[in-house]
Structure formats: C-alpha cells, structure tokens
Amino acid sequence: MVFVTKYRHPVITVEVEQRLLTLLQKLCTTQRCELLECKADLGTKDHIHLLIERHPTIAEAKLAEILKTITSREIRKEFKDFLKPYYWKPFFWKRGYCAVSSGGASLDVLKKYIEAQGYSD
C-alpha cells in the first residue's frame, strides 16, 4: 500500500516516519496482519510505502481506512506545531490509497524496492 500526504506536502520527516512505523506495526498486529516493511520517500517526504501481509478476513479497504484514520489522528496530535503551517483543517493523508498485489515478485525484491525509497539510483 502507498499513502500520500494531503496536498502532497513534504511533512514526513525522519521523526514522523519513525512514529508512523510504530503506529502502523501496532495497528497491523491488532488487525491480525503483519507489517513486513515500511519506508517513507524521504526525498519528496510526501508518501509512504507499506508491505503488509494481510489476514484474509480483513478487507483491504477496511485495513487502509483503519491505518489512515488512526495514524492521521495521532500524527496530527503529536506533531501539531510542526504541521500547523501545512494544514489548517484536520488532515494528514490524501483521500484514497494505492494497493498493489505482489504477484510473482519475491518478498526480498519488494523489501529492497521499499527500502530504496528516497534514494537516487
């Protein structure tokens, strides 16, 4: 999955990324899913890639809704002063999300792709 910040504002700093990772790991666990990899693009600082092994009983859209709603609320609360110049309404994530199945790619290939976010080739 890929989540993009509202208006593509460059607000995912290293500190925000670390807090998102902690929150996302916890939330995935509560939904019986496993967060295998999580990395923000620290070049543009406006989106984050998640590699999730989703439990078959939870719908993809429901999982995205849970992850985005709770992380948005917590990040806005914890980084209120930092986000104030960017958001005047209670937003953090853009509407929607991108979800792609891994197809035949191995987990190692997917993890390397996600880890390389924000670095030039």
UniProtKB/TrEMBL annotation:
Annotated signal sequence range: none
Entry superkingdom: Bacteria
Domain called Transposase IS200-like: residue spans: 2-117
InterPro entries: Transposase_17 (IPR002686), Transposase_17_sf (IPR036515)
NCBIfam families associated with the record: transpos_IS200
Matches recorded under PANTHER family: TRANSPOSASE FOR INSERTION SEQUENCE ELEMENT IS200 (PTHR33360)
Identification of the protein by name: IS200/IS605 family transposase
Organism: Stenomitos frigidus AS-A4
Gene, per the UniProt record: tnpA
